[in-house]
Every structure is written in C-alpha cells, then in structure tokens.
From TrEMBL:
InterPro entries: Bac_surfAg_D15 (IPR000184), BamA/TamA_POTRA (IPR010827), D15-like (IPR039910), POTRA (IPR034746)
Keywords: Cell outer membrane, Coiled coil, Membrane, Signal, Transmembrane
Keyword Membrane attached: yes
Coiled-coil features, chain-numbered ranges: 104-137
Keyword Membrane in annotation: yes
Name of the molecule in the record: BamA/TamA family outer membrane protein
Pfam families: Omp85 (PF01103), POTRA (PF07244)
Compartment list: Membrane
Length: 732
C-alpha cells in the first residue's frame, strides 16, 4: 500500500459525505415564520405573496463547489456520459473558489486529457500490481465517496471488477485491518457484511468499502487479497483522518466564525470524523436558516495535511433585482423598499418584511418574490412580481339649498403620482355664500428624498366650514362659521431600527371666527371655556378671541410600527409618542404631549383582537381647535363627535374583528374615554368620570375606499342610549 497521504482524496470524501443530504429550499409567505427541516422549509399560509426558490437556484448555490477531481474523472471517462447541457463545477485558482459553467465541447476536450492522465495513472498502478503479484494479491486501488449520486463508493479504476474476478464465490477465510490506530478492529468488523466464512462477491466487497467509509474515520481504504487453499484472505489497508489542529471558516459575512465553529461541534486534538463534520455542517446551515438565510450552504470542506480543516460557506448573495407586473409604478419605487441590497445575502425574514413594505405602499393587490440563479457563482436573481391596483381617486359632489344656493365639490388625488410613489391630493369646494365659496386644500408627499428613507410633505389650505359645538350633555350650544388658513410641512426618517420613525412637523394655522349661522343667538359660547351659558356680547367676543387666532408650532414624534399590514393589521403593534410646542410669534403658547398604543393579535386564521389605548396632556394657552376631543366615530362611539373637550384625555378601545363575507368584516367593540380641563370642570378628574360604550359595526371594502358603519350604546346610567356612525377610512 502506498503510505503517502491523499489529501485531495480526503477532502473529496469529507465533502461528498456532506452532500448526501438534500439542500433546503423554501416557499415562504411574507407573514410566516420559517422552520428549517431536513427536506426544506415548513411554512404556514400567509396573506400576501410568497417567496419561491426555483430548483435551479437551489442547485446553483452550494452544490457547484462539490465537484471534486474524482467526480470529474467519473463524469468524463466516456463520450456517452457527457451531458448535453452545460454544467457548473468548482475550480480553485489563487486561493479563491470559482464556479464555472462548462459546456460539452470543453468536457470532450478534458475527457481526452483525462485519458492521458489515466494512462499515467495506470503506469503507476502497474508498479503496485508487480508488488502485489509477488505476494499473490491484487490491489484494486483507491475508492472515493462520490457526490454525484450520494449513494456510496465508486471505484476510481474501472477495471476493479476484472481485477477481483478470480476471487468470485471463494470462501473468505480471514478479514483483517492495517492502519487503524483509533478505531478497534472488532468495531470495524461489525460494519462488514463479507466476514470470515461468507462467499466473496465483488458487490459485497464494494458494499463493505462503502460501510467502512461511512464510519467517518478514514480518507483512504485499499483492500488487498491473498489466495489460500481454503479460499481468500482480505486485508483492508486504511488511512485514518488526521487529528484536528485548526478549524477555519471562509465566506461568512452574517454569522461570526466563532458561532459557526461552535455550531460545528468539533474539538481540536481529536481525530476528524467526516460524519461529525457532516452533522456539524447541517447545524451551520440550520443556524443560518434560523436567522433567515435559507440559501446559505456549506459549499466546501477542505482538509490540509497538518489537520487544518477549512469550511467554505456560500451565503447566497443577491446579484440583481427584476420587477414584473408593474405597468405604472417605476421599478425603483419597488426595489427601494427591499430590506436587502445587491450584494447582500438573501434573507427570507427580510424578504417577508420587504413584501410587507411594498404591499403597504397601497399600490398593489399582491406581491410575490421568486429566486432564480444568478450569472455569477453562488448568487440569486430576485424577481419581484406585483399586481397593480388603482391608486387614483376622483370625487365630485353637488347640492342646492335656499340659503346657500348651488354647492359643488371636486377632489382629485393619486397616492402613486405618475408611478413615482409620490402622493398628491387636491380638493376644491365652490358655490354657497361668500364665506364658503373659496375652499381648497392641496397636499403633496414625497418619500425617499434621499437614500436614508427620508420623507417630506406639505399641506396648505383655505377652508371655511360650518361647525357645531356641544356641551357635555350632548346639547348643541353653538353653530358658527370658522375659516382655517394655513400650511404644514413635515419630515420623517426611518432610524437604524427600520421599525422606528422620527418625524418633525411645522405648522402655521390661523383660525378665524366668521360669524354665527343664521337662526342662532349671537350670544353663544364655546364648550369648555365659559362658565355662564348666556353672556353679554362683549364677554362673548373676549371668549372668541381666546379661541380663534394664529397657532405656530413644531411637533416631534417617534413612531414604532411592526404591523404586518397598515390597512388591515392582524399582527404587530404601533406606538406613537409626540410633543408639540406652540410659540414662534403666534397668538397661543402651549405644550402638548400625547401617547398612542395599538396592538393586534390574530386568533385563528382571520379573527383579530385589536386594542387601542391613548392619553394626552396639554399645558398653557390653547385654543379650542387644538384641545383634545373624545366622542364620535373615531373614539367613544355612541356619543356625538367631539362631545368632550379638554386639556387632558384618556381613551381606549377593544375590538374583535371577524370576517362575514368577502369584502365585509364584522366588529364587536367596547370604548372608554373622557377629556377634561381644570378650567371648566367643577371637580378634579376621577376614573369614575370615564364614559363607556359597547357596540357592533361593519367594515366594507368598497371601490370608494373603506367604509365604517358602527352603532355604539352608551352605558352611563344617566344617559343610556345609542347612536349610529358612518365614516370613510381605515380602522385603527
């Protein structure tokens, strides 16, 4: 037996054992948790989109590096074995592993070169045969674990069967081992089928060689045979794997080498076992998959003569993005929402989050991701397929009354203006009297004004509308015209934590009292301000002065949003904290603090519990329009809109949402809330002052947008009763 260590053969054997398990693949919904299993990724059904890994992409990543010299020899021995389609294989140059595409012509050329190498190999084997003949034995040569079929040992020499033909059906009289220093011969004997007393067959011999390799202790096994009068004796000359001196990891960028080495579970100073290496490699891939890197593979394992084991990781990086199905939306609007950039390893969790971000734009009915093999080795091309929906809105209304004459309204908007992702809205009201014939409002929002996901927007308006004010008993006490003129500018930016956004808003607003509505006493007062119900004109004018004027403020807000769907959330939460400071030369000076918390819990497939809690406090000189208001369709259903106003506020809603039919959802709810102020409350606030309601509602997805119908019933013993509410817009 040649005692020279065949290190290339050892690497091939270890890596071939690694490839016996099937690579993981995935079809993952954007709202799913990923669980890596032996055969793939298990998922639960999601709501929007899938992540599909094509078979070609699975084969591209992590398998091309498994082509060893031995497997190349096997695949190029004969012309008939050459494939018609190009294949991928690993080539090592200058210390870098490459995967190259090889066509049939190249394989034919290499096949001829291989024949020359085989002749040289045969000459070396002849020397062994001469020695073997002198000892009346034959040496069939080295054997390899082949990664191509994953089923066991294939003899390196195609003449193996002929070389042992003379021993067929002879009785095996003795089986011994040479070279085994760490594994006892008795243990090895137990793995053999062809033991002493059995008949010799070529097939059984190959099976036994396979079994010995599968123990994991050897990188080379050469059986030799001696004919004796009773039959044949077999000696297995084994070369054990070296002692591990160092484990090195290459190609890892997302998981540290320390964590990978720990997952491998190998100990320095112990003999390397290829089975343990195989198990460790699977653990490394599971470690990657748990963090979302479902394409990451241990692509190669190399063993150096000094026991230095090198683990090569292919993380499956993104080569490019391709978008399909978008006839209006620009490609960059979609691609910029991806949480992974070109060159990053593909991550299923980030891909799922990316689909949420794309869907939450409100431009698409469905979003799916498909992974195709890239042009470069160990890369994927991410294909994003979308189904667009209408994003434009148009509204028109008209009416007539004896008092106001003809009234009209036109509104136009598009939340995906010209496919850029910008949002534009224009509203114009015309007709009526002099106070209401010049109403307009214009808003524009532009996301991604830089590469840090900064959004900017503005709104300016000139609106005169009729307002009604109510006391705490729900009785109307004022009806008047108010003119609002102003503008708001805001900027927001996502932080390093993509779920957190900081926002700043600048506001300049002028509220003007334009007179009472015909038929109402001029000596009206405004809820939350006056202690007397009917005051003199001078006092009323003074009160109006304190409630109408210019407000100039800056607001800082911090928002945490992990909801799976901002339009119809089923999981996650949203938390908002804000602080508004008014001064800057305006008529009012105040500080306003507010907190809002929303939580969603899915129960079953389509049922959802939704919780909303809020609180607010303001201090200073604050106009009526800026005070907290509770009551109506938004909060505390069953009471009039904004029935309770004040400088302090508490509110809460709990809803159970369930599907009824397609596009229609049922809601059972309970609300609690109150707003108060020391300026006009006779006593300090107590929790017993909170108002409670219960009720039922419907949510209808219509072509005009979401419609909400609610009936709330007041539980206050002194004011029992109910009220219907109709409104447009999404639910909290």
């Amino acid at each position: 037996m040649n005692s020279k260590l065949h290190w290339q053969q050892l690497s091939a054997a270890v890596f071939a054992s690694l490839l016996l398990s099937s690579p993981a693949y995935a079809e993952v919904s954007h709202s799913q948790e990923v669980t890596l299993t032996k055969n793939g990724v298990q998922t639960q059904s999601g709501e929007v989109g899938t992540i599909e890994v094509t078979q070609e992409a699975k084969e591209e990543i992590g398998t091309g590096n498994g082509t060893t010299d031995a497997s190349q020899k096997e695949s190029t021995k004969t012309e008939e074995a050459l494939p018609d389609k190009p294949i991928y294989r690993e080539v090592r140059r200058n210390g870098i592993t490459y995967i190259e595409k090889v066509g049939k012509e190249t394989l034919q050329k290499e096949s001829k070169e291989q024949e020359v190498q085989d002749e040289q190999l045969a000459a070396r084997m002849q020397q062994q045969r001469e020695i073997a003949e002198a000892q009346n034995r034959k040496a069939p040569g080295r054997s390899f674990l082949t990664p191509d079929d994953g089923e066991g040992i294939v003899d390196e020499y195609d003449k193996l069967a002929k070389s042992v033909k003379g021993y067929e059906n002879l009785t095996v009289t003795k089986v011994t081992f040479e070279g085994n220093q760490h594994e006892k011969a008795e243990v090895l004997q137990d793995s053999l089928k062809m033991s002493a007393g059995t008949k010799f067959t070529t097939v059984q011999m190959q099976d036994d060689i396979r079994s010995l390799y599968e123990t994991g202790w050897f990188y080379d096994i050469v059986p030799t045979f001696t004919r004796v009068p009773e039959g044949v004796q077999i000696v297995y000359h084994v070369a054990e794997n070296p002692i591990l001196t160092e484990l090195e990891v290459e190609g890892n960028t997302k998981i540290s080498s320390h964590d990978i080495i720990r997952a491998m579970g190998l100990k320095e100073g112990e003999v390397v076992n290829s089975r343990d290496v195989n198990v460790g490699a699977r653990k490394v891939e599971s470690l990657y998959a748990e963090q979302g890197y479902i394409l990451a593979k241990v692509s190669d394992i190399r063993m150096l003569p000094d026991g230095h084991l090198i683990l090569q990781v292919a993380e499956g990086v993104i080569e490019d993005y391709r978008v399909k199905g978008n006839t209006k939306t620009k490609d960059y609007v979609i691609i910029r929402e991806m949480r992974m950039k070109k060159g990053d390893p593909f991550n299923a969790k980030l891909a799922r989050r990316s689909m949420q971000k794309i869907y939450n734009l409100g431009f698409f009915e469905d979003v799916n991701i498909r992974l195709n093999p890239g042009q470069m080795p160990n890369t994927v091309s991410v294909e994003i397929t979308v189904v667009e929906q209408s994003t434009g809105t148009f509204g028109i209304g008209a009416g007539y009354s004896d008092a106001d004459g003809f009234l009209g309204m036109v509104s136009v908007g598009d939340k995906n203006f010209r496919g850029t992702g910008d949002s534009v809205n224009v509203r114009w009201e015309f007709g009526g009297d002099d106070e209401t014939n010049t109403n307009f409002e214009v808003s524009y929002i532009k996301p991604w004004i830089d590469d840090k996901e900064t959004t900017a927007g503005f709104t300016f308006y000139n609106m005169t509308n009729e307002y009604a004010d109510y006391d705490r008993d729900g009785d109307e006490i004022a009806r008047y015209y108010k003119k609002r003129i102003g503008e708001e500018i805001f900027f927001s930016r996502v932080t390093d934590n993509e779920f957190i956004t900081n926002q700043i808003t600048l506001k300049n607003r002028d509220d003007k009292y334009k007179g009472k509505v015909d038929g109402y006493d001029s000596n009206q007062y405004f809820e939350g301000v006056d202690e007397g119900r009917y005051l003199g004109e001078d006092v009323a004018a003074e009160r109006r002065k304190k409630n109408f004027g210019t407000t100039r403020s800056i607001t800082f807000a911090r928002i945490l949003d992990t909801r799976d769907n901002i339009y119809d959330p089923r999981e996650g939460k949203r938390t908002m904290y804000s602080f508004e400071w008014a001064n800057f030369g305006g008529d009012f000076r105040f500080e306003k603090y507010q907190a809002d918390y929303r939580y969603y819990y899915r129960m079953g497939k389509d049922n959802v519990w939704a919780l909303n809690l809020g609180a607010g406090y303001a201090n200073g000189d604050m106009p009526l329009s800026q005070r907290f208001a509770v009551g109506g369709s938004e909060f505390l259903r069953g009471y009039r809109d904004d029935q309770f106003k004040g400088n302090s506020m508490l509110k809460g809603s709990l809803e159970f949402r369930y599907p009824i039919i397609k596009q229609v959802q049922g809601v059972t709810f309970t609300d609690a809330g109150y707003a108060w102020s020391k300026d006009y409350d006779e006593t300090d606030f107590d929790l017993s002052d909170l108002k409670y309601t219960v009720g039922l509602g419907l949510r209808i997805n219509s072509p005009l947008g979401p419609i909400r119908l609610d009936y709330g019933y007041r539980l206050d013993s002194s004011d029992r009763g109910g009220r219907f509410h109709f409104s447009f817009g999404g639910q909290f």
